Amino acid sequence: MSETSVANTLRRPRAARHSSAPSEAPAETTSTTSAGELDTAYLETLLGYNARRAALAVISVFLQRMEPFGLRPVDFSVLTLIAHNPGITSRQICTALDILPPNLVGMIKSLVKRGLIERRAHPTDRRAQGLHVSAAGKRLQREAQSTATQLEHHMSLALTADELQTLNHLLRKVYRP
C-alpha cells in the first residue's frame, strides 16, 4: 500500500454530531442540521463506526509517536510479540495478529535487515525458525512500548480505569468470540 493510500485510509473523518439518544435512529434523516453539522446519530449506534473512529483517533497519534522508531503499527505488534515470546515462529505471529504469511515475510526481512530481530533454529521443529529480538531490538522495543503505554494513557484519559478495562474486554469479545 502506498503512503498516499495509507494516509487516505487513516484520514480522520469530520467531527460527528453527538446525539442524546444514540440507540435510536431518527425517524426521518436530514442531510444537515440547522447549525450545518451532519446527522450521524444512526452511525453512532454502529459498533464498526465507533470502533473505526476510536481506532483512527489512536492510530493517527500512534503513527506520529512511532515515527522516530521507524515502526508502523503492525511492525510494533510483530516486534512486541517477538520480544514477549522469544522463539515465536512466523506461523504463530500470523495466527496471533491475523496476518497472511506472504505479508509477514517482508516485515520479518525488514526487521532482520534493521538488526532488530534474529532467526534461530527452532528447538523442536527443524522446519521452523524461532524469532528473537537482538540487543538493539530489545532497546528499541522497550522504548517503543513505553511510548505506546504513554499514548494509551493519554488517549484514554476520558475513561476510568474500570471503564478502560471493560472497553478492552468488550472489544476482545468482538474479535475473539
List keywords for this structure.
Arc Repressor Mutant, subunit A, about 55% helix, elongated, about 180 residues, two-stranded antiparallel sheet, 2 domains, 7 helices
Write up what this structure looks like.
With 177 residues, the protein is mainly alpha-helical. The protein has two domains: 1-23 and 36-69, no CATH class; 73-141, Arc Repressor Mutant, subunit A (Orthogonal Bundle), CATH 1.10.10. It contains seven helices and two strands, in the order H-H-H-H-H-E-E-H-H. It has a two-stranded antiparallel sheet with strand order 1-2. A hairpin with a 7-residue loop joins strand 1 (117-121) and strand 2. Helix 2 (47-66) packs across helix 6 (135-155). The two termini are 29 Å apart.
Brief description of this entry?
With 177 residues, this protein is mainly alpha-helical. The protein contains 7 helices and 2 strands. It folds into 2 domains: 1-23 and 36-69, no CATH class; 73-141, Winged helix-like DNA-binding domain superfamily/Winged helix DNA-binding domain (Arc Repressor Mutant, subunit A, Orthogonal Bundle), CATH 1.10.10.10.
